[in-house]
Amino acid sequence: MTDRLIPLDSVLNLRDFGGYPTADGRRIVRGRLYRSAHHGRATPTDLEALAALELSVIVDLRRAHERQREPSRRPAGFNAQVIDNDIGDDADDPWLAFMRDWDLSVEPLQGYLADYYRQAPFEPRHVDLYARYFHALGQTDGAVLIHCAAGKDRTGLLAALTHHLLGVSREDLVSDYLLTNTALDFERRLPQMTRDLSDHAGRELSAAATRAAMGVDAAYLDTAIAAIEAAHGDLDGYLHDVLGVAPALKDRVRARLLV
Questions:
Q1: How confident is the model at residue 58 (pLDDT cuts 50, 70, 90)?
Q2: What are the phi and psi torsion angles at 190 (to 5°)?
Q3: Domain containing 97 — which CATH number?
């Protein structure tokens, strides 16, 4: 699993989420599907590595104020399509609001994240971004990268939906989601993560609180999938009814990404 990680200086959680076998005996091609955290602190070396991916589409799942706070840095000659939106940005960021009031114990964090994952598939801004992403997958033959701030929640859910559409097993789908806990490289990056989260919270966080806030747990993804299934019967129903992934689009995506 760790061979898919691409360690960079300041762009976290970058990895290839292709390569998995699918139910029909094929496999997702490598070098076409990438996921990461934001690119706002990319070093010149990071930018060279991103340019080498030859991206044709980047999906930035962050809110407008997140993009303004950490504007994406781009390689020289960058010409990829960027998909983003400003839907719903007139309200306070719920994550920052939670961080300001959080007592730093695990239970309320788990409750917040469970509620987040339960609602995230149906948020209008996510529906718009996810739908545009899947349509882009059906149109481009180039590499596509999806990211949010840390590349773990919004990005993790979208990667899981992509894996499902392509026929990846639930076990592999969850394993890829959990790979964030390795890719974030807590041993090396925990001090900086703690400083960043402490700035958001307005007080000093412990290392344990940072790990809890930045890590992922299969239960969170299970919560999102259960909410989708309760509302639409299964993931395929959600992809079709909410995101507009009609059979023809699904076939085009699979034709482009499976070998």
A1: very high
A2: -60, -45
A3: 3.90.190.10
